[in-house]
Every structure is written in C-alpha cells, then in structure tokens.
Amino acid sequence: xxxxxxxxxxxxxxxxxxxxxxxxxxxxxxxxxxxxxxxxxxxxxxxxxxxxxxxxxxxxxxxxxxxxxxxxxxxxxxxxxxxxxxxxxxxxxxxxxxxxxxxxxxxxxxxxxxxxxxxxxxxxxxxxxxxxxxxxxxxxxxxxxxxxxxxxxxxxxxxxxxxxxxxxxxxxxxxxxxxxxxxxxxxxxxxxxxxxxxxxxxxxxxxxxxxxxxxxxxxxxxxxxxxxxxxxxxxxxxxxxxxxxxxx
Length: 248
Hints:
By secondary structure, the chain is α/β, with parallel strands linked by helices.
C-alpha cells in the first residue's frame, strides 16, 4: 500500500503551465490561487458559503457571477450579487436538504443555455469525495477550473474500502485535469505515514487538460501569492513528500 500511497502523492505534484497563477479572494481562508485563464468563463458554482465570500466578490468584479449553495445559512452574504442561492448541501444523492452537483449544474446551467466554461470552487468539509464520485464525467468537463479544499486525509488509511474510494476520487479528477496548485491549510495538523509527512487538509487547484500543457513542476512552496488560512499561525509549506521526487 505504501507504494500506491507514494504514487498518489506524486499525482498531486503541482505543474507549471503557460498561465501564471493569480489570487482570487481574500488574503486568508476563502482565497484561492487560480490560473490566469478566466476569459470566457460563464459562471461559477460555489458550494459552501462563507460569511465574507471574497472569492465570489472578486469573480464578480471580473464579470463572473456565482451560483451559491449551502443549507447551513439562510442567504448569501449581505450585498453580494449572485446568480442564485440554493439552501442545500452537496452530496452524492438527491435527498431532503441535499443535491448532487449534476442536478445543480443541469438546473442552473442547462446545456442548451451554456455558452462558456464554468468554475467550481468547493469547500464542503469532506463531502467533496462523494460529490465528485457521483458526478458524471460530462458535467466535470464543463468546469475549466476547479478549486477545492481536500479534507480528512488522516482517514484515507482507515480501511481498504476508504483507500479505494480515495484512489478513485483522484483518478477521476486527474483523467481530465492538471494539478496547478497545492497548498496546506495551516489551521490543520500534518500526519506521518511510514515516514511520509502529509497535511490532513489542503487546497488543490485544477485546470482542465485541454487548456494547457504541463511546462515542468512548481518548485516554490508556499507560492509567493499564498497566504495562511488563519492569520495567527505561520503558513505551512507543502512537504517534500508531495513534490520532491519530480524536482530532483
């Protein structure tokens, strides 16, 4: 299993592309680094609503409105102009208070309306796994850029079923997307697995493969535009276990 684990980490090494990274959102939690490839983006889907929504405000200044979803709040942050707000959580099934990414996208951006790519910005506290696994490939491919927080890495090794789900989750994403940024959340611990250090929570940015070819691997961690998720703690660099071999 340790060899499989190393291969998984290797697949998450961020690569360089022709697009420089830009920061969208605030200086701390809620801001993400994206490739500067936003021209022609139709709209953003943003599950997990923050009280400030700096990411969505920055996109709005670029002419990109956002569809928001979250059952834990009654409405979007005050003063934020949105394309829509749905008081539901994302999940792997449609049920009371829950919806799939597929049903959400098809209802808000049906294919006969769509005339541009989408962005997915997702911080849904561990539900990212079931959400992505339940999403058809044709829906995922409508997103040019995906920025998401990955949670609960400490649970990847609990049992073989969990491990297979994690591998399938990343394989599904990486069939069509490149990892262009990887940043640990400095408010969450790191764990060590057989001498390999990994963050339990980290932010990934992915770019659809038809947009750019890899131009080598990133080498500076944190990136100059990275900011700590919480201000009262030092930022955490990406551990060498998540990038080292490809830069040697």
